[in-house]
């Protein structure tokens, strides 16, 4: 993995907080996105989750970047102390917009999870905070799944269907086919 120096990054505001730590808006070169990083020497489990996320982005979900998941812009080591991923930005999570999510956007989240499942990827952390939404000026919407730290590869239909049903229940669409 490439090592980046701190002065290559322009840090913006904090976008949120996840299991691995704070997520920041940053610019690296000409790319602006969401930065998630984990200290190399502090928490082995969080580091393993971030490596798992990188493997998923560059492996089975590569073709879905920008459609069902954010684009992976960069990943590497920051100042020989942190492993990071930099992904494209969305606006908000389903959790912050809970009262303002349309039926179509909920269907897009379900469709996205189904596409992940077709690649054998079980997300493993179905929460409104892990579904991002980006509404565009032309009235179109992107719905992205984020945080693949707990995901795993499986083709066990019972587990995949349970995860899908959990999402439908969470979105209030349990009766949807």
TrEMBL record:
Residues 9-177 form the Protein kinase domain. Coiled coil: none annotated. InterPro entries: Kinase-like_dom_sf, Meiotic_Drive_Suppr_Kinase, Prot_kinase_dom, Tyr_kinase_AS. Pfam families: Pkinase. Gene3D superfamilies: Transferase(Phosphotransferase) domain 1 (1.10.510.10). One of its GO terms (molecular function) is protein kinase activity. PANTHER family: SERINE/THREONINE-PROTEIN KINASE YRZF-RELATED (PTHR37171), SERINE_THREONINE-PROTEIN KINASE YRZF-RELATED (PTHR37171:SF1). This is Protein kinase domain-containing protein. It comes from Rhizophagus irregularis. The lineage of its organism: Eukaryota, Fungi, Fungi incertae sedis, Mucoromycota, Glomeromycotina.
């Amino acid at each position: 993995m490439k090592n980046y120096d701190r002065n290559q990054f322009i840090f913006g505001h904090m976008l949120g907080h996840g299991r691995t730590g704070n997520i920041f808006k940053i610019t690296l070169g000409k790319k602006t996105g969401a930065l998630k990083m984990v200290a190399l020497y502090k928490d082995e489990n969080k580091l393993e989750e971030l490596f798992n996320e990188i493997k998923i982005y560059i492996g089975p979900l590569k073709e879905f970047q920008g459609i069902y998941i954010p684009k992976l812009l960069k990943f590497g080591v920051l100042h020989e102390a942190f492993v990071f991923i930099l992904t494209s930005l969305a606006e908000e999570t389903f959790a912050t917009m809970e009262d303002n999510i349309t039926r179509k956007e909920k269907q897009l989240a379900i469709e996205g999870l189904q596409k992940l499942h077709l690649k054998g990827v079980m997300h493993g952390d179905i929460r409104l905070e892990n579904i991002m939404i980006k509404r565009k000026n032309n009235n179109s919407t992107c719905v992205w799944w984020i945080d693949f730290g707990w995901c795993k590869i499986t083709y066990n239909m019972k587990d995949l269907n349970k995860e899908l049903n959990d999402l439908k229940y969470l979105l209030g669409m349990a009766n949807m086919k």
